[in-house]
Amino acid sequence: MATTGQSVPQGHAAIPPQNDDPRTDAATRRRRASPWRILKPVQGQIRFAMAISAGSALFGLAVMVLLMGVVQRLLEAPDQVPWPWFAGVALCTVGAYVARLGAFNQAHYAAFRLERILREGLAGRLARVSLGYVETQGAGALAKVIHDDVKALHVFVADSTPLYARAYVTPVVTLVLLVALDLRLALVALAVLALGYGILTRAQRRRRDMVRAYNAAREKVSAAVVEYVQAMPVVRNFDSGKMSFGRYQAALDGYLAVMLDWYRAAGFPARFSWLVLSPMPTLTLVLGAGLWLTALGDLAPARWLGVLLLCTGMAESMMPMMMLRHMIEKVALSVARIEEVMAAPELDAGQGGAPAADPAAPALSFEGVTFSYGPDLAPALHEISFEVARGSVTALVGPSGAGKTTVARLIPRFWDVDAGRIALGGTDIRAMSTDALLQQVAFVFQESFLFADTIAANIRIGRPGASEAEVIAAARAAQAHGFIEALPQGYDTPVGERGVFLSGGQRQRIAIARALLQNRPILVLDEATAFADPENEAELIAALSALMRGRTVIMVAHRLATIRDADQILVFDRGRIAERGRHAELVAQGGLYARLWNNYETAQNWSLGGARSPAAVPNEEVA
Ligand SMILES: Nc1ncnc2c1ncn2[C@@H]1O[C@H](COP(=O)(O)OP(=O)(O)OP(=O)(O)O)[C@@H](O)[C@H]1O
C-alpha cells in the first residue's frame, strides 16, 4: 500500500496518503506544514543535490538531441559512421548516470545529517520542556515523533529532493526543444498531456474529503487494534474476545467501506489518466501526425525522430511531479508533529542557585497555591498553603482524585502553579535553576523507571561517580542487596526493558537505593509502597525508613499505617486541605481522616471469611 521510494504507483490517485497515526489531532491537520522549512539546516546540501540532479536531466536530454544528430548524419551520408556524435551520446549517457548517482548520494548524506540534527533538537527540547508536557503527550507518542516522523523526513530528503529538480527541469527543457524542433508536433504532445492532467485533476477533486475519511477510518482501526491487544488478558477472562473483536471488526468494515468508496470515486479516472500520460498515446499521436506531415513533405525525418525521442521522455518526466505531490502530503503530517514538539513551551527555569540557607525558613512551603491542568479544567488545587519543617515527615492523604499526586508533582515542576508559590528554604522554585532544584529534592514515584542496563548502573544514576562499595551500601540500606546477590550475575544483571525482569517491589527498592546515593535533603515519595506485595512490604518499609532518616519528607500515602508517626498529616479533599494535624488528633476529631482510618483498618482486617459478611466491606475508597 505504501508508495515510498522511487516506484511510481499505478493509478496512485486511488491510493490515499499514509497517515497511520492516531496522534494526528485536528490542530495538527490544520497546520499541515511545508517540509521545506524544516530542511533549513541542510538546505545547501539539498540544493547541491538538486543541481546535480538537474544536470543529470540535462545530460539525458542531450542524449536524445545527439541521437537525433546521429540519425541526421546517417541519413545524409549513410556510408560514414558519425563517431564524434556517438562519442557524445556515450559521454552524455555516462554523465547522466554519474550525475544521478551523485545527486542521490548527496541527498542521502543530507538526509542522514538532517535526521541527526532533528533528533538532537527534539531530545534537547524535551529536556527543557516541563515534565508535565512529556507526561501529557505520552512517552510513546513522543518517541514516535523522534523515531518515525524523523525517519519519514529522511526518506523524503533522500528520495524526493533529487526527483524534484528532475520533475521541473525535464518537462520545461523538453518543451522548449520540442517547440524548437516542430511547433505543430509540440502542440500535439502538449494536447495529450493537458488531457491527462485534466482527467487526473478531476479524479482528485474529492481527494481532500476522502483523505479525511480515510484517516479517520485508519485511526479507528489503530485504536481498535491497540485496545484488542492491550486488553487481551481481560478479554480472555471475560468475554472470550467477542466484544472487543467485534469493535475491531466494525472498524475494519468501516475502513473497507471508505476504501471501496475511494476506489469507485477516483479509481477509474485516475487509472485512465495514467494511461493517457504513459508514453504510448503521445507517441502514437505524434507518430500519426508526423506521418501525415512527412507525406505532405513538410517534415524532415531527423526532426520527426527527434520529436519522437523527446516525447518518450516527456510523458515519463511527468511521473516524478505527480509522485512528489503525494510524497509532500505524506511528509507534511510528520513535519507538523515535529514542529509541534519543537514549539512546546520550555520551562522558564531560573538562573539562581541553591536556596540561601535561611534557618528560619521552612524546608518547603506551599503558599496559596492554585493549579489546574488546563484552562478549561476546574482547579485540581485551590489555595493550598502548608509548611514542612526541616527534618520532619509530612503525609498527604485523602480520597482518590483529591490532589495529593498533583502536590507531589508540582515540587519538581512537572507544571508551574497558576497562583501562589512553592518555596524551598524560602526561595521560589521558579527562581532556581533546574540543577539547583534537583540537587535539593529526590523523588521516588509509584512506578520507578529503570533503564535497560545493569542493576549497578541503575543505582549509580543517583551519583555517577559512586564507588562499588557505595553502591552496595546503598543497596543494603534499601534492602535490595539480598535479592541482587541471589541473581546469577549479581549487580551486573541486566534489568531488561524498563526493568521487566524484576518485581514491582524489587524495582522500587532499586529506585530507593538510587535516591539514597543521591543523598538530597528533601525527599518526595508518591505512593512508593503501592506495588509492595505482603512478602516484600516489610522490606520496602525498612528501605524507606532508611531513606527518610534525617531528611525532610513529603509522602503521598497509600497505606495509612505507614504514616501513623508522621509529624504532620494533610488531609486533602477535592483540591483543598480539609484537615491537618497528627494521627491521634485527627482520629479524635472524628472527621474525614477518622473515616479514612476506620475504613483502612476495616480493609486490613478484611478476609475471605469476612467477605461473606456485608458489614466488613469498606464503603469509602482509601487513597
Ligand atoms: N494529567 C492530568 N490532566 C488533567 N487532569 C488531571 C491530570 N492528572 C490529574 N488530574 C485531575 O486532577 C485531580 C487531582 O488528581 P490527583 O492525581 O492529584 O489526585 P490524587 O489525590 O493523587 O488521586 P489518587 O489517590 O487516585 O492518585 C483529579 O480530579 C484528576 O482527575
Kindly describe this structure.
With 623 residues, this protein is an alpha/beta fold. It folds into 3 domains: 21-181 and 319-346, ABC transporter type 1, transmembrane domain (ABC transporter transmembrane region fold, Up-down Bundle); 183-298, no CATH class; 364-616, Rossmann fold. Helices cover 60% and strands 9% of the residues. The chain has helices spanning 26-30, 35-38, 43-76, 83-128, 131-137, 139-181, 183-203, 207-230, 232-238, 242-277, 279-295, 301-342, 404-410, 434-440, 455-460, 468-477, 481-486, 504-518, 534-548, 583-589, 592-604, 608-611, and strands at residues 364-371, 381-388, 393-397, 419-424, 427-428, 441-444, 522-526, 552-556, 568-573, 576-581. The strands form 2 sheets. It has a 6-stranded mixed sheet with strand order 6-7-8-3-9-10, sandwiched between helices. A 4-stranded antiparallel sheet has the order 2-1-4-5, covered by helices on one side. The longest helix is centred in the first third of the chain and has 46 residues, at 83-128. The protein binds adenosine-5'-triphosphate. Residues 136, 373, 377, 380, 398, 400-406, 623 line the site of adenosine-5'-triphosphate. It is found in: Cell membrane.
